[in-house]
Amino acid sequence: MSLAPRSPIVEDTSMDVSSPTFPPEIIDRIIDCLRGHPSDLCNCALTCHAWLPRSRYNLFHTMSICTLEALESLASISCMPHILPHFHAVHQLSLEDARRPSAAQSKKSATSKRKARVRPFMHLLPLLLPHALRSTRVLEITRADWRAFPPHPSTRLHRSTFESVTTLTLSGCWFGSCNEFVRLISSFPSLLHLSLINSAWDNERSPGAAHPPPALKSLSFSSTRDKETNVVMEWALLYHNSCSLRYLSFDSYSPSAAIVRKVAPTIGLQLESLHLVRHPPFRGDADICELFFTACSSLLSLRVNIYGALEKLPWKLSLLTSWCLRSITLFVNTAVDTAITFSEQLSSWTQIDDVLAREQFASLEAVDITWVVMWDVKQEDSAPSLVLADYFPQLCARGIFTSTVSMYA
Hints:
Number of strands: 14
Radius of gyration: 29 Å
């Protein structure tokens, strides 16, 4: 055994390279950008312990269920204590009937197709996952057909399952009657935003007073027939909850003038955003625009699609009673109206500039116009100007005007 003193240990600092570090909020923002990429989020979750919570949050942020088997599988694992907290992190839930009849079934008779129709599984959600989705805010139901198998009446009794849902989108859904649709909507006590996309029902009877509508803040119709639009608007008026509406949008079809006369005075004092869009170019929307423009005195944002009849647009805009408008978006298609000449159209734009330059519209911050026009070389001597800003000198001087012109010869 040697008694010689040991040499002091000298630490080798030649390889001491400090690794760069990022603030946690920067790392969380980077992981948030990977939402919708499950494989990448799984890799981030396995990188280190610090990345696991945020990666898991985004991984379970959106959940999609397309079959009854998938719903039953989720129900079987939702009872596990270490899995249940992940279900509570689900913010958006998508239910879609992805199954379709086979080619052999499509050749069968209508009766056979009705028997082979896949039964929607949405009504089983509150039974199989009663408390797992208590934090879900957004619910999307796509291609659900309840005509052959209507929702069970007890669905409304499980309102606690949907008490956190504030946004509901029904896309391509069919109901056997209007009461089935009303019963489903009434199952969401905290619903604030409702969007109907190409959804309808067979029975045309109006809903009864047994199911009060939720206090909606936004209501949107897209590719929805005027029949369904009128019924929903009347149902909202039945309990005067339409006065809570802040955003109203009609795409493709608009309600009848009789319905607008009823709903406009009720929502006019509260409505902040109005969107009127009609495809294809139907006539007869002048009365609807006039009724809304004169009744809505609190509008902040206005968007209107108008097909033809450009000469009436300055007068329509002069009917606006709101003194707090901030943005106006106009899509004007005069290519469908060959009765008015190009010079007359340019004169109408100058009149619109004069209308929007009034003191009433001093709060405007943005005016965007898209113009689709057809130019007939036989009627005009020279090529027209494509710069629409030349006819809006007053709005351009305020720096709030933008435009897009599409011309067809």
